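thought: fold this chain, then report.
action: predict
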Amino acid sequence: MARDSSLDIAVTGVGARFPGTTGLDDWWSALLAGTTLTTRIDRGDLLAAGVPRELVDDPDYVPARGLLADSDRFDNEFFRVNPRDAEMMDPQHRLMLETAWAALEDAGVDPSTDERATAVYASGSGSGYLRAMLANGPLDPATLDQAIHGTEPDFIASLISYKLGLTGPAIAVQTACSSGLVAVHLAVQALLGGDCDQAVVVAAGIDFPQAGHLYHPGGIQSVSGECRPFSATADGVVAGSGVACVVLRRVADALEDGPEPYGVILGTAVNNDGSAKVGYYAPSVAGQEAVIRAAYEAADIGADTVGYLETHGTGTRVGDPIEWSAASAALEALGAAPGQVAIGALKANTGHLDAAAGLASLIRALLVVKHGRIAPVAGLTELNPLLETEGSPLSVPTEQTPWTGPLPRRAGVSSFGIGGTNAHVLIEQAPPREPAAPGTPARLVVLSANDPAALDRMAARLGTHLADHEPALIDVATTLATGRAALPERLAVAGRTGAEIADRLASAVRGRAGARPPVVFLFPGQGTQRPGMAVPLAAALPGFAVALNTCLDAFDHDLADRLRYALYDDQFPADELAATDLAQPALFAVEYAAAAALGEIGIRPAAVAGHSLGEITAACVAGVLDLPAAARFVTARGRAMQACPPGAMLALGCPADEALALAAEAGAELSLAAANAPDNSVLAGTEAAVEQFDAWVGDRVFHRRLRTARAFHSALIEPALAELTAALSGVRLAAPAVPLAVGATGELLDTAPTAAAFVDAARSPVRFGAALTALAGRCPGAVAIEVGPGHALASLAAAADLPVVPLSPSRTDRPDEEVLAAIGALWTGGLPVDLEVLCAGGMPLHLPGYPFEGPRWLAPEVRHQASEPEPVVEPEPAESSEKDSAEKDAAALLATLWAEVLGHTELSETSDFFDLGGDSLLITHLARKVNTEFGIRVPLRDMLVGRTLGRQTDMVRELVAAANA
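observation:
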């Protein structure tokens, strides 16, 4: 009977920091090569790290360890941790925060928006950092309290949940060396029991300082400084430093919307040896065998289906044979054939990672079943003669080999803690996922970081990954849009292939998302139309095609068919589309659909304006005209204007009054059609009048003919006014939902206009420059979007100090990329673009995560350990505490106390205690220091309410004055 897979758990994300390598791929390559990643530490480095000279020079001191580079770095600002808290935190806590974030990113999860109940199970080794603080003597109570919260393993799970906004159970798990794998077992139980929907399991083993060990004959630590599990030369364990994290979900949920899992957990078990063993520190064959059997029972599989075992493998001459015997007995009894199960022993590569050892072993086993490659046991040349190899199911690989065991690939992982808490986990390769559909449509790829340097590192890492792995671009776009937090420093690039994206990342324009600017929609008028202008918008903007169909349905059926042909076929005759009766409905339809599509991705205007015909679109978008009425009016407007006498229009690079003066001087019967900007105006009239003026004006002023066969906004349009009036007869006009710029006057309209205003607008000059100035005044700091084809309005908006982003280019080889690039520019500027809608369609991938590289942190309490004791200066006798309090500079002293508690020194009267990383516990410490220094009693409630430095200073001065009165 087939096993029930409904209780399986997927490993969806991994985060890790291991000795001697720079990332998971680098680590895996080192394991496959059998590389030893432990280090012989230089004497000078040991002394600089604070290891006592007498210990370093002891002949039994072994200067070997798996060193974790940059373990003192921490990006405190990313996690809103103030400098004082950052330096007081154990490096294990700092790196567990960063690694948990990285694992969630790897799982395609943005913690800032994810609504799943996510649990945290965290394990850490004993805090050498705290011991180093205490080595110089006792800390004052407040400092000790802060140090304990920042170093003890009890608090890290809750801190991760708090900083990442996770709402499931947060539990510290401490079972010595087996802590990480025991935490996996507990997380699996919580997922199956419904306590959470997702679980973060994180563990760290980082001693302080990272150093060697003093060899004790008969102890478990290596005298040679090399960890050689299952080897004839094995003489003990070597310590290592590392952090490991996995993200777990129920497999059915993970396969539905998560990235391809690293593997699937089939069953777990935990037990304890009890007292049936030689001593407390001794391993037990019976206990280890029992936990392996229990895991197989939980998984409902036989050992005949398993091809790999990641062992605990400490490299001790007694411990290894005990583990070998226990595993051999369990697997043989469960059906494994002789030599069937290859073993791994991670400690041979990295050293013993203590609380993180079991979790690191799990990650290695996951990579084995994922890639189907088995790494050698590093450094092994001859097996330990105490191993009972005859007939054993176990085999020891001495070189990299492909998987030859049963399929699907399954493996076991063992972890045994000092004291006897044993854990075993069984895993299986994840089910294969269908590749993304072929095709190369344009995609938008976004990145964001907390600071510019991190953004540059992130772009470089992503570019390398795209070049090395060539993932489907649709999946890359979806992952970065939906599985990453939107941070202030941003970039966005569009392209069709990973190679294009990688190439453009280096030169992409960066932006910083600060305060969200208001948005103004600008709709262009006739002359910007072109055949096929809907194609790039339909390709790039979700919802555009549906909105366009809705709009076309509002037109007469025959006209709608012509419009659809003109809008979607770039071979449609351009001259036919230039005709007013088709151009105006076509532009209205595209502009309306584009505005609707922008709304679907979260971009909605604070005000709208349109140039000539565009004013009708603006009115419809603002709710003044409903769609059917607007479609009828635009149809009538285009038809009526097409029936007007031919004419021409001429743009001039000068103000409107100067343009009219020039026309009068030339004797040309022309009227002002538009005052677009201080140096941009348009004259209109008959073809003959425009030709006469064009020839006369010469080089007196810049001028150019516009591509139009009608003299819009001139007397030649007057024959159309009656039909326009009829088209609006009986139409109810509503007040605009957002301010609407009126082209005829340049004013902003907040009340319902009259129908006559829209009729008069067709004849009156367009005062678009005044309208833009009014918009900039009403919406300071606004960003304008030219919602339509081309960028005819961009220079006009710039003249009014209104930055504009054209939504659609006028001519380009890849117009859909340009549309996406425009949306990307809006996002980088801080507009609320709904990337989940814009970049939908792909599945999450494992992509490079946040490139943490924060400052180095070391508490002064630790630094004092290696320095000479400071001379004791006897204080001068105090005259009176009241006098001292009165003479103290309250502002300066209070700023000093803030700096001691928070670690911030750049302070002003408006500095906010809680914005700088303070909390209720730290404000209690501050109040205690204030009371001690000033000899007063400040109510804690007043400190909480008066949260700025200035208000607290005033409060202290008042209390000091009252005490001295």
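thought: worth noting. The chain has three domains: 8-428, 519-647+708-811, 879-964.
final: tokens above.
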